[in-house]
Design brief:
Layout: E1 5-10, H1 17-27, E2 32-34, H2 53-58, E3 61-62, H3 75-90, E4 95-99, H4 103-110, H5 121-134, H6 136-146, H7 148-151, H8 159-172, H9 176-181, E5 190-197, H10 200-217, H11 219-225, H12 241-247, H13 253-276, E6 281-285, H14 290-303
EC number: 2.5.1.75
Keywords: ATP-binding, Magnesium, Nucleotide-binding, Transferase, tRNA processing
Cofactor: Mg(2+)
Length: about 300
C-alpha cells in the first residue's frame, strides 16, 4: 500500500483550479505544487493568470514565478525538480496538492515520461527551413497528418512543440502520442485526480471575461515590457503572441484581444479532449457548494491509502 498521496487538480483554463487547490491544501494542511508551465515565469503574471499575492499567502505554492523567460526549462527538468520537491514535502506531509492545466507536465509528475530520443540536428534544421519558408501552418499540417491524436491536444501555436514531436516521429517511425502514452508506473505515491467541469458555454464565457480582466489589470503593459523577448519559447504563447502582432502593426488592438479569447477557448477545448480520455478523474461542478466540497473530501478519504 502506498502511504503518501498526491491530489492532482485538473481542468481547462479559467475554470477555477487555483481556488480548489487552495481549499484542498487548507483542508489537508499541506502545500501546492504547480504544473502550469506558463506560470513558471515571473515576468508573465497577468497573462498566465498566476495566483495573486493574496492567494499565494493562503497556502504555500511551488513552481510559481520561479524562472525568468530568458531561462530554458524543459519538461524533463521539471519532472526531476517536481519529484525532488515532492520527496521533500512527503517527509512533512502525507498528502500534497498538484494543480495545473499543462497536461504533459501533470503526466510527467504522476506517471513519468518515456525516454525519448534527443533532438536530431538534421531534422531540426529541416523543420526550421519549413518554418522560415512556409510558416507555422505547414508544420501544423505535417503533424496533423503524422499524428492527428497529438495534434488534437498540442499547443500548435508553439513551434518548439511542433519541432519536437515531428522530430521524434521522424526518428522513431512511431506516433508521438503513442510514445508518451505508455506509463512507467514507477511512482511510489497514490494519485487522486480531481477535475472541475462546467457547461461549454459557461466555460467560454468565463474565459472571455478573464481576458477582459487581464487587459484591465495591465496585460498590454506586461506584454510591451516583454516585446524584446518575443522570439523566446516562453513568449510564444496565447496572450502575448497576439499582442506582439498589435505592437508590430499587423492587427488592431480589439482584434488582438478577440484572438486571445478565441485561442484561449481553443486551448481549453484541447484540454477537455485530453481529460475526457481519462477514466480516473473525479469531477466537481463549477461553483461547488460546501456540501459538494464535503462530499469531495469524503471521496478523497476513501481513496487515500488504496
Amino acid at each position: 500500500m502506498k502511504n503518501k498521496n498526491l491530489i492532482s487538480v485538473v481542468g481547462p483554463t479559467g475554470i477555477g483550479k487555483t481556488r480548489l487547490a487552495i481549499d484542498l491544501a487548507n483542508h489537508f494542511s499541506t502545500e501546492i505544487i504547480s504544473c502550469d508551465s506558463r506560470q513558471f515565469f515571473k515576468e508573465m503574471k497577468i497573462g498566465t493568470a498566476s495566483p495573486s499575492k493574496e492567494e499565494l499567502e493562503q497556502a504555500p505554492h511551488h513552481f510559481i514565478g520561479n524562472l525568468s523567460v530568458q531561462e530554458y526549462y524543459s519538461i524533463g527538468q521539471y519532472e526531476e525538480d517536481a519529484l525532488k520537491k515532492l520527496n521533500e514535502l512527503f517527509k512533512k506531509y502525507d498528502t500534497v496538492i498538484l494543480v495545473g492545466g499543462s497536461m504533459m507536465y501533470e503526466k510527467a509528475v504522476i506517471e513519468g515520461l518515456n525516454d525519448l530520443p534527443e533532438a536530431n540536428e538534421e531534422n531540426q534544421s529541416k523543420l526550421q527551413e519549413i518554418l522560415d519558408k512556409e510558416g507555422i501552418e505547414k508544420l501544423q499540417e505535417i503533424l496533423k497528418e503524422l499524428d492527428p491524436e497529438y495534434f488534437g491536444v498540442v499547443d500548435f501555436h508553439n513551434h518548439r512543440r511542433l519541432f519536437r514531436s515531428i522530430d521524434v516521429i521522424w526518428q522513431t517511425n512511431t506516433k508521438y502520442s503513442e510514445l508518451i502514452a505508455v506509463s512507467q508506473d514507477s511512482r511510489d505515491f497514490n494519485v487522486i485526480r480531481i477535475g472541475i467541469e462546467a457547461p461549454r458555454e459557461e466555460l467560454y464565457d468565463r474565459i472571455n471575461r478573464r481576458v477582459d480582466m487581464m487587459m484591465e489589470k495591465g496585460l498590454l503593459e506586461e506584454a510591451r515590457g516583454l516585446e524584446k523577448f518575443k522570439g523566446l519559447t516562453a513568449l510564444n504563447t496565447v496572450g502575448y503572441a497576439e499582442l506582439f502582432k498589435y505592437f508590430d502593426g499587423e492587427w488592431e488592438l480589439d482584434f488582438a484581444v478577440s484572438e486571445i479569447k478565441k485561442n484561449s477557448r481553443r486551448y481549453s477545448k484541447r484540454q477537455l479532449t485530453w481529460y475526457r480520455k481519462a477514466d480516473d478523474i473525479h469531477y466537481l461542478q463549477l461553483g461547488y457548494s460546501q456540501e459538494d466540497f464535503d462530499g469531495l473530501i469524503e471521496y478523497i478519504n476513501g481513496e487515500i491509502g488504496k
